[in-house]
Every structure is written in structure tokens, then in C-alpha cells.
Amino acid sequence: MKILVTGGCGFIGTNFIRMMLAKHPDWKIVNLDKLTYAGNRLNLMDLEENEPRYEFVQGDICDRELVTSLMEDGHLDAVVNFAAESHVDRSINDPTPFVTTNIQGAQNLMECARQTGISRFVHVSTDEVYGTLGPDGKFTESTPLAPNSPYSASKASADMMARAYFETYGMPMVVTRCSNNYGPYQFPEKLIPLIYLNAKADKALPVYGDGMNVRDWIWVEDHCLGVELSLLKGRDGKAYNFGGDAEETNIDVVRTILAVLGKPESLITYVKDRPGHDRRYAMDYSLAAEELGFAPTLGFREGLEKTIAWYEANTEWLETVQSGAYRNFMDEWYKERS
Length: 338
Ligand code: NAD
Ligand code: DAU
Known about the structure:
- The protein has a single domain (2-186, 218-245, 276-299), classed as NAD(P)-binding Rossmann-like Domain (Rossmann fold), CATH 3.40.50.720.
- Helix content is 45%, strand content 17%.
- The protein contains 13 helices and twelve strands.
- Helix 1 (11-23) links the parallel strand 1 (2-6) and strand 2.
- Helix 3 (64-71) packs parallel to helix 5 (96-116) and helix 5 packs parallel to helix 6 (150-169).
- The longest helix has 21 residues, at 96-116.
């Protein structure tokens, strides 16, 4: 099987490419990535140098000509679209790149796939398209889409486009919706690596609002497994939920990281809340369990310890990805909120 993976130099894409090439000796992967601030080509440099089944192409999913030329390769069996602007806080500061990549870019990929007759398309979406939950219940695939941030609105728009491409053109399309991932290679703007970095440096740990917002955490390789199963076994026109069975309040996540690192809770600093902050996410993934045989493999505490061990062993990676642009963004963001 030969797959075009987009956004493969980001957090989940990197894990997916590594996992799939290791698991499937007969698979080939072309990775199309624009290398935004969140994409790091070095993540997969060992494969670029030593693995003939892997090819990197720098480029934009919005580029019709480039995408068409990659898809016109007669041996291409499937497309897996991870490429996106992925950070909610950035979408609040400036929604425009989210519309460009997450909606227009995704539609461009779908259109090129339609024109070139690609026989499988997996569009990677998120639980955030469903909006927010109260204290009870879980999102199912029939929960109405009710996004609250510019990020989730852009992802929900692409989900609707994927649905339309299936209904209108019969395009072989599967959508995946997953909860919060954690693990190696996550960019340190997201909660877990950001808290890890700050705690290591004995810096304040910014917790939004009252810290009682709940996220369902999934080990990144379990999400990759869900995407793999969707690619191989998903029914056309369906969306599948994936979750980690690990609902945690943000403050508990922060306290657990402090406990693992042996750092004091006095570092915790409550800051102004994220506007439109979703209160709780929880995933009912019984459809994926029944139809695809999906089940998460790792508990939260074990996964968090593995994640922290990876960051401890990869301080050079953390230094590399923290460019000047990243620091400026974070400084501005926290200045506004503290
Ligand atoms: P990320 O921000 O770490 O990586 C995104 C990658 O996409 C980067 O390598 C970036 O360079 C690339 N990219 C951005 N714009 C592009 C463009 N126009 N053309 C080509 N490449 C482009 O994101 P992530 O956390 O790995 O998320 C990957 C996907 O999974 C996203 O679609 C996201 O919405 C979805 N998702 C993420 C999570 C999570 O917890 N991180 C959970 C559910 C779903
Ligand atoms: O649920 C899936 C989504 O998870 C993905 O679709 C997104 O791409 C991904 O970024 C993630 O979104 P969140 O907004 O949930 O992740 P983040 O790590 O930014 O925040 C997790 C929670 O922690 C959220 O409730 C906000 C809070 N938070 C975050 C940061 C960065 C803080 O309290 N302090 C912080 O400094």
C-alpha cells in the first residue's frame, strides 16, 4: 500500500508514520508537509536518510498543482489528512490560517482526490467539533456538531465537506474524531509539554480559569491505531470516535506532572480563562470498538510517565522546536492573560 500522509512532520503525523512503516513492511509513505512552526522535518530525518519506503515533500495542502501531481502517481492507494493548524489559543488570536488550511486546504485535498480517483481518504478530525458537555454523558457520532472556537469551527467545516464529498460524489471517505492526544513529539504549546517544560524550569504553571475543565486523554499511538483501523476497515461515509477512557481535570493533570517530577504545587498559577473554553469532553467510541475492533491500550498515568521520560531523553528536540517565533507568541499570550 502507498499512502499520501499530510502534516506528517507534526506531533501525531510523526508518530503515525513511524508506527505504520514499522508495522507494515510493504507500505510506502509520502509525507506532504508545509513545515509551519509546528512541523519539524528533523522528527523523521532518520527515515529520510535510511528508509527508501519514506519520502518527504515540502508543500502546502492548498496547492492544487502540487497535490494533483502527487496524487496522479498511479500507485497511490490512500490519503490520510493530518495537516492542520491545531492550537485553539492561536485560532482565538487569528482565525484566518485555520480557515485557509483546515477548510480550504482540506477541500483542496478532497477535490484533487476526486479528480484523480483516489480509492481511500481518511480525514483526521477532532472531538472538539461536538462542542462541550455538562457533567454527564459522552459524545457519540450522532451528537450534533456545535463547535465553539475558530479552530473547532474550521474542523467541523471540513467534516461537513467530507460528508458532502461522500454524499454527492460517492467519494470513499472516512472521518476520525479523537480526544486529546499526548506522547512523544508534541509541540510545547499544548498543556502537557508546556507544563512539563515550565515545571522543569521552576516557572509558573498557567492553569486557565478554575482548572476544572475536563479532557479525555489518549496515548498518541492509540489514536494512530484508530486512524490505521479506519484506513483499513472503516465504512465509507462514516465518522468514528476515538477516546482514551481517561477523563481528567486540567488541575489533576498538572498535579500529576508535578508529582512525577517531584516539583512543588506552589508553581501552579491560575490565569484568565480561555474565551469560549469548552468545559468537558468525553468520548463514546463503541462504534469504533464494534466495527473496527478499536480499544485504547495505555492508562493515563503510565502514558504520562512514558511521555515525560521521552521529553527527559529528548531535551535537544525541545530546544530545537522552541524557536524565537514560538517564544514571542507564548510571551504575548500569557502577558494578556496574567
Ligand atoms: P500539529 O500542529 O502538531 O501538526 C500539524 C502539521 O501540519 C505540522 O507538521 C504542520 O507543518 C502541518 N501543516 C500545517 N498547515 C499545513 C498546510 N497548509 N499544508 C501542509 N502541511 C501543513 O498537529 P497535531 O496535534 O499533530 O494534529 C494533527 C491532526 O490531528 C490535526 O488535523 C488535528 O486537528 C487532529 N487532532 C489532534 C488532536 C491532538 O490532541 N493533538 C486530537 C484530535 C485530532
Ligand atoms: O480534544 C482534541 C483537541 O485537543 C485537538 O483537536 C487539538 O488540536 C489539541 O490542541 C487539543 O485541544 P485542547 O485545547 O484541549 O488542548 P490544549 O493542550 O491546548 O489544552 C488542554 C486543556 O488545558 C484545555 O482545557 C486548556 C487548558 N490549558 C491549556 C494550556 C496550553 C491550560 O489550562 N493552560 C495552558 O497553558
